[in-house]
Amino acid sequence: MPSDEPPLSTRPSRPVLRDPHMIPVVGHDSHLPPVTAERLQPGALRERLARVGDWQPPIGGDGARPDFSDRQATAASVLVPLVQRPGELHVLLTRRTDHLHDHAGQISFPGGRAEPADADAVATALREAEEEVGLKHEMVEVIGQLPVYTTVTRFVVTPVVGLVRPDYILALDSFEVAEAFEVPLQFLMDPANHQHHEFEFGGARRRFLSMPWRPGHGDPREYFVWGATAAMLRNLYHLLSD
Question: Which of 47, 157, 211, 223 has a Cα at 20 to 30 A from 20?
Fold first, then answer.
């Protein structure tokens, strides 16, 4: 694991953070270079994702550790939707509704657990994206996959990367998804926008990444991208920087 990645605790307890944005920031990564604009073009992304091979992501996830193996692993997929806007790509993200039992209000990719009828991880990601936000399969060109990320709840998640036509139309599942929004990929692929947070739980120090996004232009909202979503985006950063 590169030195710029947060160390993971060896303790098996699983903290539940109700207000992660309140956890102190202990560092930024402005010393790391952003991914160049040329590498964020559709053609360059297709080429890099076509040769992932045995590349190993710096962040494999808490659930990949032996001390978190008390729960049966469950296959899942997420779609990393890259919307083809003029001149640049945007990442389509969702905010989960506040009433959900798990991960209420969190920012996430469309996705979920694999079903028996799914042919593969790509089928799971596309099906879940259509169920959650109404994104039709024909609007997505799948260009590759990232190595799996295992969550602390033992979901073994395959991130499926797809290019999305800009004329897509969404129909949100209002029970699960409060809203969908776009963030420029260039912003997320610049480590100067990545924050490290640290807190204590069960006698151990723990860290996580966040990438807060503020739309600006008079919009006061902040979208706090953190946890598994931020970790998978960080892995994408390292893949594209190699």
Answer: 157
pLDDT digit string, tens, across residues 191-214: 999 999 987 766 677 778 999 999
In the chain, the number of structural domains is 1
Is residue 76 within 8 A of residue 113, CB to CB? The reply is yes
Let me know if residue 19 belongs to a domain: no
User: In whole angstroms, what separates CA 159 from the centre of its chain?
Assistant: 8
Q: What would the two tokens of residue 165 be?
A: 């036509």
In a domain, 2, yes or no: no
Q: Pick the closest to residue 59 from 149, 153, 122, 137 (CA basis).
A: 149
What pLDDT score was predicted for residue 90?
98
Domain that includes residue 191, residue range: 25-241
Which of 223, 222, 224 lies closest to 208, judged by CA? 224
pLDDT in tens, 47-95: 999 999 999 999 998 765 555 556 688 999 999 999 999 999 999 999 9
